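Notebook, bench 3.
Goal today: get a predicted structure for Metapyrocatechase from Marinobacter lipolyticus SM19 so we can plan the truncation constructs. The sequence was checked against the plasmid map this morning, with no discrepancies at the termini. Length recorded as 307 residues. Pasting the sequence as submitted so the record is complete.
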Amino acid sequence: MRKGVMRPGHVQIRVLDIEEALEHYRDLMGLIEVETDSQGRVYLKGWTEVDKFSVVLREADAPGMDFMAFKVLNNQILEQLEGELIEYGCDVEKIPAGELSGCGRRIRFVAPTGHSFELFAEKEQTGRYGIGNHNPEAWPRDLKGMKAQRFDHCLLYGDDLDGTYKLFHEVLGFDICEQVVDPDGNRLAQFLSVSMKAHDVAFIKHPEKNKFHHASFFLETWEDVLRAGDLISMTDTSIDIGPTRHGITHGQTIYFFDPSGNRNEVFCGGDAFYPDHAPITWDADKLGKAIFYHDRQLNERFLTALT
């Protein structure tokens, strides 16, 4: 049952050098730079996003993800979910409005996989970049690089997939869209949605907690993904794999790394999901085809390069 969580709201990513990171996320990927706050954090957004920001870059000594956040319908829902998280046994941290520029109060909790997540209800809405909401043009003419449209999802690695699914399903109202299971029926990977998208967050079983695999950004067409591959080569950006197709979600994809070693994905397509759909199940011995449908095998870097 849906609980009023609407969509992914933002992700805060640690980078080693903020200027190098901006060249990557702004100039190569085409995210819109919004502002820099008093802590030196840089805010960015995809051009179709209405909220003020969806990506926050923080300079740090080690790369990775600080937290991922989801936007809920209103403050009443936020208060209700805060109480339900506490009742469920989560330690909930209250973060005041304005700690992130333009964002209302947030609540933060740690999932059983060790990852930090946030919920919030309010964020300043600056509108779609360059076209607005009144008689909008098709797209802004000053976009850069890959012209990323939106922050879409994260894939995270951690140990307790069952506990994390239970929390996300029972408290937050997420459904499982696709899964990879071993011969004993244990889930090795789970793709969770709170919308009509193929997934809003995904987890793969890994012995260490709190590992970041990638943040993903949506492009419109397969041609855009191929163009992204050209730009990756033109800029000597470190590539992981692709362009190719996923078996899971059927999205068309390419993976690459930012200068700090954080993995990014840009993709197009993907299945639609409704709450009455049964989960799609992949056997563990078909994992290669499930992830990379064309090659039908996983490269070692995809499995082990984590931040």
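The mean pLDDT is 92. The radius of gyration is 18 Å.
Flagging this for group meeting.
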